[in-house]
Amino acid sequence: MNYKVFPAGISLVLFASFILSDNTVEHINKALNTFFEKYPQEKVYLQFDKQQYTIGDTVWYKGYVTYKSAPSSISKVLYVEMVNDHGEIVKRQSLPVEEGGAPGDFVLEEGQAAGNYYIRSYTSWMMNFDPSFYFYNKIRIGLDENRDAEAESANEPNCNIDFFPEGGNLIEGLTSLVAFKATDRNGSPENISGKIVDSSGKQIAELKTVHDGMGNFIIHPVWGNHYSAIIERQRRARIKIDLPPIKKSGIVFHTETVNHNTGDSVYFRISRSIRNKDLYEHLIICAEMQGICDFTYVNFDSATAGNYNNSILTAPSPLSIDRFPPGILHLSVFDGSGEVLAQRLIFLYGSQQISEIELRSSQINFTPHSKNTFVLNIPEEVNGNYSVSVTDADAEKENANDQNIISNIRLTSDIRNYIKDPAWYFQNNNKKFMDLLMLVSSWSRFKWEDIMNNKFPYLKYYAEQSLMLKGRVYQVKNKTGKLLNDAEVPMMIKEHNGSLKNILSVPVDSAGYFTLTNLDFYDTATIYVKNSAETRKKKGQDITVEFEKNPLDTIRFAFIPNYPGTIHTQTGNQSNKSLSGYKTVADTTTNKMQHQPIRKDKTMLDPVVIKAKIKTHTDSTIANYATGVFADPNSWGQTFDFTNDKIAAHNFQTNVLQYIIENVAGIQVFYVNSEAELDGQKQYIDVPLIAWRMINSMLVQGPSMAQKILANAPAFFLDEQQLTGEGGGDYLGAMHLLQSIPLTNVALIRIFQPGTKAIVGGNSPHGIIAIYTINRRESRDYDDANRFNKIKKAGYFKSDIFSPPDYDLKKNLQYADTRKTLYWNPELKADSVSHSVSFSFYNNDVTKRFHIVIEGLNGNGNIVRIDKMVQ
Hints:
Layout: E1 3-7, H1 17-38, E2 42-48, E3 52-53, E4 58-67, E5 70-71, E6 77-83, E7 89-96, E8 101-107, E9 115-122, E10 135-141, H2 145-154, E11 160-165, E12 170-171, E13 176-183, E14 193-197, E15 203-208, E16 214-219, E17 228-233, E18 236-242, E19 246-247, E20 251-260, E21 263-272, E22 282-289, E23 292-300, E24 317-318, E25 327-335, E26 340-348, E27 358-363, E28 371-377, E29 385-392, H3 405-410, H4 434-439, H5 448-451, E30 467-477, E31 480-483, E32 487-494, E33 500-508, E34 513-519, E35 524-529, H6 533-539, E36 541-547, H7 583-587, H8 602-605, H9 617-625, E37 638-641, H10 646-649, H11 656-663, E38 667-678, E39 681-692, H12 705-710, E40 715-718, E41 721-722, H13 731-739, E42 746-752, E43 768-773, E44 790-794, E45 821-828, E46 836-842, E47 850-857, E48 863-870
Parallel strand pairs: 3-10, 12-19, 40-43
Antiparallel strand pairs: 1-23, 2-4, 4-5, 4-8, 6-7, 6-9, 9-10, 11-13, 13-16, 14-15, 14-17, 17-18, 20-21, 21-24, 22-23, 22-25, 25-26, 27-28, 28-46, 29-45, 29-47, 30-31, 30-34, 30-36, 32-33, 32-35, 35-44, 37-42, 38-39, 40-41, 42-43, 47-48
């Protein structure tokens, strides 16, 4: 294929169509700059002392908050949660971030159930974006891994395969590389073999996984033909899955990356279809990473097009990548009008993160209770922030740490889908599989069609530089309240130990709101409104405050998208995937199908239907809470607005799911008996499956009853984050979550019934139910019982100091020492003159090999990591 490549920034435009292209580049560049300047993307990584724990242990960790690989200055508060295997948050901590780092720990008390747990971590600013980009890590507590693995393998998995044509589409007549990923019904990678066949059944390619359920093949699509994958499985029936449909015209964008220790080289090839070839004559390649972008112009000769003899094996043109650091490079091909034709992810390894990092021993002794000393040299040290863990290497499972600071910051924190053992791809012999991983990975930091049309994220949460408290102030006189505005309110802060922390004069704005910032305390403090006796006597009035509760206080369940087999796992894009796991519960349940309950309190429960053109209170509520297509007032059939409803504001007995079941017309409910862990014990609770009313023939009891129900189920969204529906998470997990939200915490419910044009692409064939929780307390009629003169505010978590026995002082000799973590220091700081730091620890009774892991960042954003076995 012959075409010409023009570097970005070309001063001479040779074709008239490039005038439009230059304008397009300016538009693309402006959209990217706006997105990354206004919506910087923070990342969080946690290093742990180890991965497997027992009851009574302490989970030691160090959090790192980064922006563009350097310590972040955006957020100074980090949230860390421990989530059990049912999605319930069992512990939550808030930590102060200093120089990008925050140490913490979880104590595993007696009585805590054994099992798989997940550590989730994020900042308030990150809550404005997709939770898939939070930090997640799986740990085991008192669980026999082999027995757990046997139990999982005993389940007969259903195979699912997703296909990923390179660039995005199969084009008639253009040879294309197609990657695929096979998973079982739990979302775990599954190795398969089979073949690709055409309409006649003729084999045209071999299908075989090469690593973790992934593989690829080459196909030359012919129009009028369709292609399928035939999967051969031992002792099970073969599976036939169709490939994506073929487009009549378009381009195929192919890249090849060569990784060197000194850098990377990237080559690309673009083929265009014969049909409508003029539409693809002048193209623009945008290479983007972390807001840095570079453009390449591609101009086809007028006679050049794809042909039936083209080859995918050559990629003759180099791509300029000198400006980009190590990490995921997002490539997009645009036509001259700015339409995206193809997209591709590639990975740049770059050079080593820091040169000449050295860990040397000055004293090693494996006898019991002996002292060991190591020295870490970091020649390029600049305000570094490091943590070190030393564990008994023989007590760890093999490859215990499947992720590390490099794989997290440069890989998993930019990918939505689950990656098994991401650190594995950074070993020299495994780099060849990285490109395959990029082909099957999902990118969703932004969507081109959104940012090119000035549709940017709606910010509900602010970047926190400290703990803060918000609220609204009222004056109360003769039991009558009115807003206090443009004034100051005296407040006192008392810490947990009873000592007076501070007395403040807090300014109140014209709407009665205040924000108290720079709060700095640990544990819990009480904040009081100070009403003086003199004020009461002279003016006969009190000041009372409605404190705003932290939105996190109402969240008891967490969405865990990055691990297979969990209640809240989000994997793939196949709609039948979320249904396959319900056969067992449907088999064992009785038919509890119910009709619409009769409403008793019509005054409270009548829906609000927006028809008038005059702006109502509900219109204002929608504008405050909903964004994008969710904010369209005309597409939604029903809207329930609770922001001015005094009864709903105090209805703690009814959860949001109960309210929907009782008040949304046209739905029916089928209950399944689901296992859940409540108060530390496994219990079985009724969980509703909700669907729009179906014809009688679909209501036949049988093994597939739950599937029939869910085939007609609406997609549930919570604060515009998808819980169920195509591409959504596990249905039972979503119902558990909604059952935990009382009506008093709900601001708005919007119903989009099926049978109308879907407004959220691919997610609403059976309608949508969108739920919004109260982000701040709305202005309601004054109710003295709803105001408070004091509030307890959770402060920062105070991490313990790792305190191993000091055998130089002859301590703890009477006890057996079987510690698995021999040393942990989350605040390892190198001397600014010598650029080195030493640390010492004592051996336990049995260890014969040390596993030392050191991770961190210096002030320039260079990553430090050492993983060393000492024996």
